[in-house]
């Protein structure tokens, strides 16, 4: 983890009270922190200038000027947003900013981690499948349903399964050519791992959207590794769900491009079928 902003965020809980004040000022306004003098930062954090210098040395930099350079490099690399826990006394402005920033940070982290070669292999599996079962539990069940809405448009037998018993029965009846897409943030849900193993035993392929080296990843044919950075704070929403939805958009785009222009009339036909259900833009409801 070379990014200074991510290092500061990761070590936030281990800092003493004074150093944490410095960290919170930097994380809240990283762009502004690159322009502040050491005196201004100390005042904003309500600490002394020596405390700021100790904070800098804790991260292996010689002083505040070098810290500002590394902050600027972090921002230039696309890490303008970092994950921050929502606190009980946060204002509407504070928790709105934190939630949006945490979600953007999660998306950017996933973008950097996911390998294009694995995306290509995942698109291969989806394009060649006879039928696809998107499986998820809890919050991931809604993601599985979104996947069904996307992929049935490709003349593909696509289903969303959020019931463990149905997942097991489908896995038991699976054949070569079937694809199970297992959606799990942690990859440690026993039921999903069992379904993945059962599906593979019966000849199906299994594509996981989960954490690298998790039990689900190891039980799958291919895993699209997602970064494990979810904040378990009581008030923090599940930004991982947004990452999963974005990854499904990537896969859908890949399948669309793989199908080529000959498939576009089919997609247009589906889209045009919805026109009678909507008011024209210039017609009042």
Give a quick rundown of the structure:
The chain is an alpha/beta fold and 285 residues long. The protein has 14 helices and 5 strands. The protein folds into 2 domains: 4-80, Winged helix-like DNA-binding domain superfamily/Winged helix DNA-binding domain (Arc Repressor Mutant, subunit A, Orthogonal Bundle); 112-269, Glucose-6-phosphate isomerase like protein, domain 1 (Rossmann fold, 3-Layer(aba) Sandwich).
Can you describe what's shown?
The protein has a five-stranded parallel sheet, sandwiched between helices. It is α/β, with parallel strands linked by helices and 285 residues long. Strand 3 (178-183), helix 11 and strand 4 (205-210) form a beta-alpha-beta unit. It is 55% helix and 9% strand. The protein has helices at 4-10, 17-28, 30-33, 38-45, 49-58, 64-76, 92-113, 116-128, 139-151, 164-172, 190-201, 215-219, 239-259, 264-272, and strands at 131-136, 157-161, 178-183, 205-210, 222-225. It contains 14 helices and five strands. The protein folds into two domains: 4-80, Winged helix-like DNA-binding domain superfamily/Winged helix DNA-binding domain (Arc Repressor Mutant, subunit A), CATH 1.10.10.10; 112-269, Rossmann fold. One of its GO terms (biological process) is carbohydrate derivative metabolic process. InterPro entries: Homeodomain-like_sf (IPR009057), HTH_RpiR (IPR000281), RpiR-like (IPR047640), RpiR-like_SIS (IPR035472), SIS_dom (IPR001347), SIS_dom_sf (IPR046348), WH-like_DNA-bd_sf (IPR036388). One of its GO terms (molecular function) is DNA-binding transcription factor activity.
């Amino acid at each position: 983890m070379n990014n200074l902003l991510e290092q500061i965020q990761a070590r936030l809980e281990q800092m003493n009270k004074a150093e944490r004040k410095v960290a919170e000022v930097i994380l809240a306004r990283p762009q502004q922190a690159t322009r502040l003098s050491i005196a201004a930062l100390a005042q904003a954090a309500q600490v002394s200038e020596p405390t700021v210098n100790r904070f800098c040395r804790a991260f292996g930099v010689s002083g505040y000027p070098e810290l500002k350079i590394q902050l600027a490099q972090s921002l230039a690399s696309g890490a303008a947003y970092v994950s921050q826990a929502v606190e009980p006394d946060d204002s509407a402005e504070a928790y709105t900013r934190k939630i949006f920033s945490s979600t953007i940070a999660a998306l950017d982290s996933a973008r950097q981690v996911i390998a294009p070669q694995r995306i290509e292999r995942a698109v291969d599996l989806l394009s060649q499948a006879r039928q696809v079962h998107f499986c998820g539990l809890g919050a991931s069940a809604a993601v599985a349903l979104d996947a069904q809405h996307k992929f049935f448009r490709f003349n593909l037998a696509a289903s969303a399964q959020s019931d463990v018993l149905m997942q097991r029965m489908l896995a038991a009846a699976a054949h070569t050519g079937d694809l199970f897409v297992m959606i799990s943030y942690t990859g440690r849900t026993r039921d999903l791992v069992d379904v993945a193993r059962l599906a593979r035993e019966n000849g199906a392929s299994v594509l996981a959207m989960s954490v690298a080296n998790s039990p689900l990843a190891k039980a799958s044919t291919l895993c699209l590794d997602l970064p494990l950075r979810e904040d378990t704070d009581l008030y923090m929403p599940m930004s991982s769900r947004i990452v999963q939805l974005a990854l499904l958009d990537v896969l859908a785009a890949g399948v669309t491009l793989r199908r080529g222009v000959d498939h576009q009339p089919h997609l247009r036909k589906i889209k045009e079928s919805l026109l009678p259900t909507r008011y024209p833009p210039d017609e009042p409801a």
